Amino acid sequence: MEEDLPVRSEYRSAMESLESAKRVAASGIDYWxxxxxxxxxxxxxxxxxTPVIERAKEAMIASGIEPSHHIAQTSKMVAxxxxxxxxxxxxxxxxxxxxxxxxxxDPSKPQVAASQAYFATATREKEVDDALLQDEKxxxxxxxxxxxxxxxxxVAKDAGVASQSQALFHDARYQGLYGxxxxxxxxxxxxxxxxxxxxxxxxxxxxxxxxxxxxxxETIKSERVRGEGNAIRKNKEIAQxxxxxMTDSGSRAPELLPADExxxxxxxxxxxxxxxxxxxx
Length: 281
Known about the structure:
The chain is α+β, with helices and mostly antiparallel strands. Helix content is 63%, strand content 10%. It is built from 10 helices and 4 strands. Strands 1-2-4-3 form a 4-stranded antiparallel β-sheet. The longest helix has 50 residues, at 110-159.
């Protein structure tokens, strides 16, 4: 067991060093400088590390991945003594590039094994974190849609839309945005007739509906629209404009966006993760 201690120490040191060397771009993307991590990978000279970077590039090409998206050449000025400076080669490395470099490294080096473990684990953790953020974003958008629905319903009522005609008012949004009624839309997307259609919308679709409702509420108020028929027509007109904005920008038409998993499943998943995080803390 005592003979394993130096190896385990190198392993732990490499993991900690890679985390310390990590940079985060303004976009939130993690990256590393090759010059800063070649020693962490167990390569004492730059000349021995660059062939490993080249093998990682080749692996990307073989997988149909453009290497320049993950390995970008750069340079930096370094002091070489007596105040003189020299320009040296370096690379920006993405997380995926670092993982491939680790895989293509010398497996006999404990630092390489540690690097493989670090990037495999960190990549999986990031995937989980990203998925959680997407789930939370969808839940927040779903809540915003509920708020906007109530707000535009109130504006419609003030404009003269009777309670029994609120369904017609909201159906005008579906007709303008999707080119079909809400009931037809459920059938088109394969939903149960009793399902709340908002509960099966993804982030883009929820955002489009929220925007339409907020815009309709503001327009009906600012233009002082009065009368049930006028309010319903105005709601449909605004929905048609939102639809045109989406399609003109290159997005798929709203009715072509696939139904997402039920929001209750997303809520359940987020709550389970939150409970797990609390136990760990």
